[in-house]
Amino acid sequence: MEEALKVQNLSFNYGNLEILKDVSLEVSQNSIHGVVGANGAGKSTFLDVVAGYLKPKSGNINLMGKDITGESVVGRIKLGLARTFQKVELYSTLDVYDHVLLAIRQKEKLKNHKRSKLDIFKQHGPSKAEAVEVDEILEKVGLTNLKNTPVSTVSLGLSRMVELARALALDPKLILLDEPSSGLNPDETGRFTDLILNLVASSDISFLIVEHDLSVITASTRELTVLDMGKVLASGLTSEVLDDPDVKYTYLGR
User: What is the CATH number of the domain that holds 183?
Assistant: First the structure.
């Protein structure tokens, strides 16, 4: 199986402080790969480096077979990388529909170099093509009935669905999820887990998910990487990694 993402010997420092050291992992196409580790293991930093927000000290990052190590955040989005954040990043004054519409317009702006000044906040309503695309995405994530609802009034669980819908609007090949179950109740967590499983089954999208909830990891991921103090402690099939003696002792505490 080909890789959606291949990270080789990735290292990152904050000044003299080593945060990541020689981290390598592969995310197979049409799969969900989990990353777990204790607080301070380097999980979110790893996502920030992969997404282009931080520049690695060394190592390589390949997306769909293309080296993106030197690409900007925008360049990586254009090549098929999207992400969500642990802290929900939404416009409180806009409704669910407009969040997806803006993401679609951002995608078109990135694709159309000659119209780089395209105003994604333009005041007129969606075109026929935009309306069709927004409705399709909202249906995929189960938000059709809430499309005219201001995001400031929806639950945290639904806000995370909106973030995912916005990421889908960018036509990604790989989506990075940073602690998507954080703050969710068990029902919301279950719905979100089912959603990403359905997206993988019905599309060409892969996921790299940093998560603290092992029920999400065991229910959704095929492969798992455990980080410990910025290094890979174990990586492979999820069931085998969780059964690894070092993982049980260091991460699971038993």
Answer: 3.40.50.300
